[in-house]
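Possible regression after last week's pipeline update?

I re-ran a chain I had predicted before the update to compare outputs. Posting the input and the new output here so someone can diff against the archived version. Not blocking, just want to make sure nothing changed silently.
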Amino acid sequence: MTAVHTTDAAVATNSSAPRRAAPGGAPRRRGSAFDRTLPYLLLAPALVAILWLIGWPVLSLLVTSFRQLNLKELTRGQVVWVGLDNYTKIFAEPEFWAITVRTVVFTAAVVAVSVVAGLLIALLMRRISPVVRIALQVAMLLAWAMPLLAATTVYQWMFDQQYGILNKTLVELGFDSFAGFSWFTTGTSTLAVIGLLIVWQAVPFLAFSLYAGVIGIPRDQYEAAGIDGASAWQTFRNVTWPEIRPLLLMVTFLSLLWDFKVFAQIWAFKKGGPDGASTTLPVYQYLEGISKSHFGVAAAVSVVMMLLLGLLTFQYLRRLLRQEGSL
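New output (post-update):
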């Protein structure tokens, strides 16, 4: 009887003992295998869709770059493997390297001007009156909403040799040498006009994005800087810049991705002319793939472009992780 009472007392003691609670106060339960795999099961359809929509085209592009795929092979359905011959062909051409350097320089220049202009407009919108700010924002929205080919056509009219408003305005201002001046005789001037168009289209997005970051900075920080007697440059360097730097890095990275792949504006202006002097890698890829029907070579050019953008993405992610680690 004593053993029975002892056992009953132990059972009562164990049943009355409080269960160990989780830090939040709820009883801690061990999740089942289904509970642990449920998040992955829910993510699986989206992951499969992403792999199908992105991974399969990339894999197909990579496979095509190792094939000889001209119009003859395409119509006959032949599969001719050439290994690295397509890459050897484009790397052996001095024209390819000249186009690559031109693309990198053009992209860097356009992005630099776009980001600086967008930042200046964002800072300006913080200081001007509400009426002027709304008018400026509406104007930028209209420029941003303008169709790409329509904007390109307007710029072609503006810079026309005989009837362009720019040449006529310069002549009226006393610059008689611009009468009948052609802005598209050299590749440098052609890319300058195209770059101006791209900047004009990119500034609204950059200005609105950076303005959202600027207005998120607490006003008391500016008031404290003013009390300390900081100048406008010191206020920007010590108050504005640290707050908008991550956002500025992100929009700069996005601009690099977009402007590196610009095709429509360059093709609509002069199709890479004059004499290929304004040809960039996207135009070169189009000429090889569509105009010449050298799809394997065009795929190799696309892979090179993808690797360059991948390197750029890696540098951006490394900077981003470094910034997060320093916080």
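Follow-up from reviewer: compared with the archived run. Residues 94-127 form the longest helix (34 residues). Marking as no regression found.
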